[in-house]
Amino acid sequence: xxxxxxxxxxxxxxxxxxxxxxxxxxxxxxxxxxxxxxxxxxxxxxxxxxxxxxxxxxxxxxxxxxxxxxxxxxxxxxxxxxxxxxxxxxxxxxxxxxxxxxxxxxxxxxxxxxxxxxxxxxxxxxxxxxxxxxxxxxxxxxxxxxxxxxxxxxxxxxxxxxxxxxxxxxxxxxxxxxxxxxxxxxxxxxxxxxxxxxxxxxxxxxxxxxxxxxxxxxxxxxxxxxxxxxxxxxxxxxxxxxxxxxxxxxxxxxxxxxxxxxxxxxxxxxxxxxxxxxxxxxxxxxxxxxxxxxxxxxxxxxxxxxxxx
Length: 309
Hints:
Number of domains: 2
Structural class: mainly alpha
Shape: globular
Number of strands: 2
Order of helices and strands: HHHEHHHHHEHH
Strand content: under 5%
Radius of gyration: 19 Å
Largest sheet: 2 strands, antiparallel
């Protein structure tokens, strides 16, 4: 099973399947600069809607990351489609749609471009519904752009959409993503050790908020940035400085969880890890405290992986 197939399965589990293709000739012409230009247009179109809605502008400090991979970028693009479609459902009566699925082969800029393009169509549905006639022209660029540059723009759009949705990501949504990451981690651990694949949660040390979960997932990403290279897998790097957004919400944390899902899905594929059922249960009610506990289990798993590799 290729890592592209693993990512496809992740997306199918969370959103359902969707078919989306792009002509081969066109795909060969699209590079990361084209994706950046389109993502920037998406950001500007979202801004037009934000002004009409009178919602606050998200001025969160950018996530301090580098070395973003195509897989990490692709999953964030899927997230921006999901949020754009939700906004279209809420304001334009659009039907719920799944994001384009990852291709079987290596992810190329054209694949991410197609997802961003699909998200832009959802945003344009909202513009038409709200009677917004203003248009945003593509601002062409000639200089090469790495996936990290595109990633940061898409993260910015995701954060802005969090403030515009009637119902943004819930703690349960974050919990599900962290659980998917933990299942992948359990499968990888099973390839290396006969020990516990899912450690016991740490002792309760008080009720938590989403900013606590955000910090814990940043710690997980930092560990993953060391685990990946040991296993021969490229993953993004997170700076040790902590540029924490103000008023962290579940949407911020959801985006971090998706980074970990992308990385662990690829690592599971490279490790040829077999599916496992670690017996992770979901409580009837999920609050930030429960998400923090599940993220703590994931952190222990990653620490165990780092010690094994």
